[in-house]
Design a protein that fits this description.
Layout lengths: L5 H12 L3 H17 L4 H10 L3 H12 L4 H11 L2 H13 L4 H10 L2 H14 L5 H26 L12 H10 L6 H16 L7 H20 L13
Helix pairs in contact: 1-9, 2-4, 2-9, 2-10, 3-9, 4-5, 6-8, 8-9, 11-12
Length: 241
Amino acid sequence: MPPSSRSSEFAAGVRAQLPLLLGVTPFGLAYGAYAVDAGLSTGLAQAMSVVVFGGASQFVGARQMAGDVPGIVIVLTTLLVNSRHMLYSASMAPFVEHLDRRWRWLLAYLLTDEAYATAVVRYRQAGQAANAHWFFFGTALALWVDWQIATAFGVFLGKAVPEEWSLGFALPLTFIAIVIPVLRDRPAVAAAAVAGVIATIGFRWDYGTNVLVPALAGLAAAMLVATLGPVRVPDDAPEAT
């Protein structure tokens, strides 16, 4: 793939993220409204979007804060829910290891499910192309800006968002749109199938295990299928009679 300029890569990253924002925006509105309704101040609710920057963990954290859960438990639970990002980081590391520390820290902060899904496709096409990280930056920054604005509207509009809108359902639809196009081989299908089954079984598990356990199980299934691979018959094997 021919090299592209910084600006073109950045713009392409923003464009790639735009369709996914259709699901992220309602989820951000739902979080903001929920956090305020749970008793968080408007400043704290918005600050979580800046510091934590993870929708699922923000919902869990807001619920625990409202329930007077000890601070250490809230921190550990948030880390557990967001621990799936370590898997994303491991996948992205080969593509960004050549960047200086400031770039790696910035991209690590901006790394989310949707940013990973779009950026990793670009990296698989371009490898360590000189300006590919600007695509990553553009797609991740677009999501970050949208999340801050959406949660701010949710925080300040609060209960003006009707419950019958069911905004929280928008994000699962977004994840389906992300996952389906990448189910191109047996390991990916195995990971999705196993993770989906366990996530359904453990939907009500506490402390973020309903997110982490399916992710780890799906990863293990993909590794197992990739390791086994197709059975190859040696060329000199005797023919069956």
